[in-house]
Amino acid sequence: MPFEEYLSYFNNSLNSLDHGEILQFIELLANAYEKEQTVFVIGNGGSAANASHFANDLAKGTLQSKNQRKRLRALSLTDNVALMTAYGNDDGYASIFEQQLRTYARPGDIVIAISGSGNSPNVIGAIEWANANGMHTVGVTGFNGGKLKQMAKSTVHVPLDDMCTSESVHSVIFHYVALELQKRFYAENLPAA
């Protein structure tokens, strides 16, 4: 496929997104900031990389200064390799995110699950546990959304049957969300006139 053709395909993919889902996602994260809730991000493979990057952008990329008191609390549960491999070895790979949530999460916190297929067993297990324990869950999906789209309390769906491009579109969404939150938090942290 010529690059120009891929660009057209990618732009059409962006145009197919439900803007309402993205705006709802921003509101949810802004609310988490206000309430000082923790946002946990999970995923496998390329989605694990996106989870790590997005959590970084939420926790640091939304800051206006290094001395800012109020911060968005965000962690990727894909980053502690020792803990993930301990749970994977002792309890099975399907438990690696649920067990971390059992340790760190509280009712009212948010779990953002990124899964192109929407059917990863470790993601589904974590969402089941989070839903049963008073957390808000967000499914960020591709393809038809799989089980995750049906289970999550809210979704950001990329309707593509293409894992690579779905992951690229997820990254674009995450950068947009982080930039929008950065603008909001900047306005909130301006000194009173």
Question: Can you walk through the features of this model?
Answer:
The chain has 193 residues and is an alpha/beta fold. The chain has a single domain (13-188), classed as Rossmann fold. It has 8 helices and 5 strands; from the N terminus they run ααβαβααβαβαβα. It has helices at 3-15, 19-35, 46-59, 81-91, 96-104, 121-132, 146-151, 163-188, and strands at residues 38-43, 73-76, 110-115, 136-141, 154-157. Strands 2-1-3-4-5 form a 5-stranded parallel sheet. Strand 3 (110-115), helix 6 (121-132) and strand 4 form a beta-alpha-beta unit. Helix 4 (81-91) packs across helix 5 (96-104). The protein is globular. The termini are far apart.
Measured by DSSP, the beta-strand proportion falls in 5-15%
CATH fold node name? Rossmann fold
The main pleated sheet reads as: 5 strands, parallel
What is the quaternary state of this protein? single chain
Helix proportion of residues, in percent?
55-70%
Spatial strand order of the main sheet: 2-1-3-4-5
CATH class: Alpha Beta
CATH superfamily, called what?
Glucose-6-phosphate isomerase like protein, domain 1
Give the number of helices. 8
Summarize the structure in short.
With 193 residues, this protein is an alpha/beta fold. The chain is 56% helix and 13% strand. The chain has one domain (13-188): Rossmann fold, CATH 3.40.50.10490.
